[in-house]
Design brief:
This protein has 225 residues and is α/β, with parallel strands linked by helices. It has 9 helices and 6 strands. The protein has a 6-stranded parallel sheet, with helices on both faces.
Length: 225
């Protein structure tokens, strides 16, 4: 069995399905600005920072700095309107079971997310006190696919990235994990085919089964710094 000492969860699409909330908030912004935004386009920005997501949303359209910040603020306001309806039972299937199994195995738990709303969402899910560290979009400058958020999170729990299993649902997050030397499980198949293990979701599988599927990637992925 691969030696794993911690599980680092991405948030959006892994712990909770905020993807639809993001999609609806982008559509609300697009409706105001005459921009059509599809679900396929929304899938492509999974795991990206707020700023990079807006750049993708804009396409060839150019905004000055003041307008850019204003659009970000409006999109986030629409997103917060969506979050009002979030409840603890909105946690995705299998997540709480994997967390419980991790604790039973003596593993640490952490979050490594590009979302600046991560702590607000975890509070709504009543999960905040379950994690040893919470890394969010407010902590690092370089966002996914840079490995910084995962490296920060591993440092916060005092562990080598090789022993921290990352759970991700986006291509940018999978790339970020590999760039930092982390084994990574991709969830949902949309753009995560480069992950070490790919699953539909976390339901109906145990953490031990997931760890047993991991290849020995210690020689394949180098640590940063």
């Amino acid at each position: 069995m691969r030696h794993i000492e911690a599980v680092i969860f991405d948030l959006d699409g892994v712990i909770v399905d905020t993807i639809e909330y993001h999609y609806q908030s982008w559509c609300m912004l697009g409706e105001e600005e005459g921009i059509t935004f599809t679900r396929e386009e929304n899938d492509k920005i999974r795991g990206l920072s707020r700023e990079d997501s807006l750049r993708a949303f804009l396409g060839d359209r150019h905004l000055d700095d003041v307008e850019f910040k204003s659009w970000l603020k409006r999109k986030n306001a629409f997103y917060h309107q969506q979050l009002v309806q979030m409840q603890p039972d909105h946690t995705l299937p299998g997540v709480r079971d994997i967390m419980r199994q991790a604790r039973e195995l003596g593993l640490k738990l952490a979050v490594g997310s590009a979302s600046r709303n991560a702590k607000i969402i975890l509070e709504k899910l009543q999960l905040t006190d379950q994690f040893d560290a919470i890394g969010d979009g407010n902590i690092v400058v370089n966002k996914k696919p840079a490995p910084d958020i995962f490296l920060w999170t591993a440092g916060a729990i005092g562990l080598n990235p090789l022993h921290c299993l990352v759970l991700e649902d986006g291509a940018a997050g999978v790339d970020a994990a590999h760039a930092g030397g982390f084994p990574v499980v991709g969830l949902g198949h949309a753009g995560v085919d480069q992950a070490d293990v790919v699953l539909d979701d976390l339901a109906n599988i145990t953490l031990t089964e997931i760890i047993n599927r991991l290849p020995d990637v210690s020689a394949k992925h180098k640590l940063i710094g």
